[in-house]
Q: What sequence folds into this?
């Protein structure tokens, strides 16, 4: 039996979360391919271990700030699949009331304060929220998820600087999937050392295997505990790879910035299959239980799609509601 200091219930829950993200994204591939979902959609396939491992350490009232690739963070933080699917269809019952689509999910009750398509834009928002938490002394932690492309922006270093200066309860999670849209890291930065940027701002910075959910869990557990206990921010660079295109369902073999062989290499390092093998080998889950979890998730997804199909679109009279005038 496994003995790594992580509760059995947490080990099981993380598997279910990772699988839910994957099965949900796979179903969306079908819907995007046949044109049923119209909004620009950035899939999280291949990166499931990061959102899962980090959010498993968060309280419900902790804050998460996401990016345009937001589905994984939403699901891992406890978001409702029905509200997610309805949002992708632009329905009134969506988590953003049908106004945001895939790139602008929000669920304040679950601590997801927003996601945005502007690269790096949510990083300073997480820092501002952490400042509020520090002033209120409520022990709430803010997590900023962002891709490697966000580290090209000036606001990345500005945010790390201020967070370190004030020892704010914020954790910076860089999901380094090696490409900013279609441009590899080596064509954008002189060194492949994002995690070392933390040294400049006098905060802990580490690089980990973002496809190993146990490593993500352990690293984020320490960083979140430090933030919650007044020890300030941390930067975690999680190395991973997105299986699908920058946006949409294809795999970008024909675009020219990556090859089919490269994608297949990373698919063999599937974070879910690796974790499943570990859990079965350690007796945490049986093959039957895995099958049951998968079937339950598929039922939830289909129920969510039915809910989305049957939900109404926003009324024209609501067009100006929530708009700053």
A:
């Amino acid at each position: 039996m496994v003995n790594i200091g992580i509760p059995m219930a947490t080990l099981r829950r993380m598997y279910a979360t990772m699988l839910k993200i994957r099965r949900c994204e796979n179903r969306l591939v079908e819907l995007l391919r046949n044109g049923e979902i119209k909004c620009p959609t950035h899939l999280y396939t291949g990166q499931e271990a990061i959102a899962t491992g980090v959010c498993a350490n968060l309280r419900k009232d902790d804050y998460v700030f996401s990016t345009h690739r937001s589905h994984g963070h939403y699901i891992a933080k406890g978001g409702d699949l029905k509200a997610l699917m309805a949002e992708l269809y632009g329905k009134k019952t969506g988590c953003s009331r049908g106004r945001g689509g895939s790139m602008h999910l929000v669920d304040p009750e679950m601590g997801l304060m927003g996601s945005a398509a502007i690269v790096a834009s949510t990083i300073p928002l997480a820092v501002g929220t952490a400042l509020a938490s520090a002033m209120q002394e409520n022990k709430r932690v803010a997590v900023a998820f962002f891709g490697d492309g966000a580290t090209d922006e000036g606001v990345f270093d500005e945010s790390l600087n201020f967070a370190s200066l004030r020892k704010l309860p914020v954790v910076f999670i860089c999901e380094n999937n090696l490409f900013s849209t279609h441009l590899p890291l080596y064509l954008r930065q002189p060194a492949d050392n994002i995690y070392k940027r933390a040294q400049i701002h006098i905060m802990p910075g580490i690089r980990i295997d973002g496809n190993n959910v146990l490593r993500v869990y352990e690293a984020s557990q320490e960083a979140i505990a430090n933030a919650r206990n007044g020890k300030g921010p941390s930067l975690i660079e999680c190395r991973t790879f997105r299986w699908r295109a920058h946006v949409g369902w294809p795999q970008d073999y024909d675009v020219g910035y990556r090859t089919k062989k490269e994608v297949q290499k990373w698919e063999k390092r599937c974070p879910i299959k690796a974790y499943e093998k570990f859990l079965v080998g350690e007796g945490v889950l049986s093959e039957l239980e895995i099958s049951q979890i998968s079937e339950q998730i598929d039922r939830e997804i289909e129920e969510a799609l039915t809910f989305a199909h049957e939900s109404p679109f926003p009324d024209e009279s609501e067009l100006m509601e929530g708009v700053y005038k």
Q: What stands out?
A: The mean pLDDT is 95. The radius of gyration is 19 Å. The longest strand covers residues 170-176.
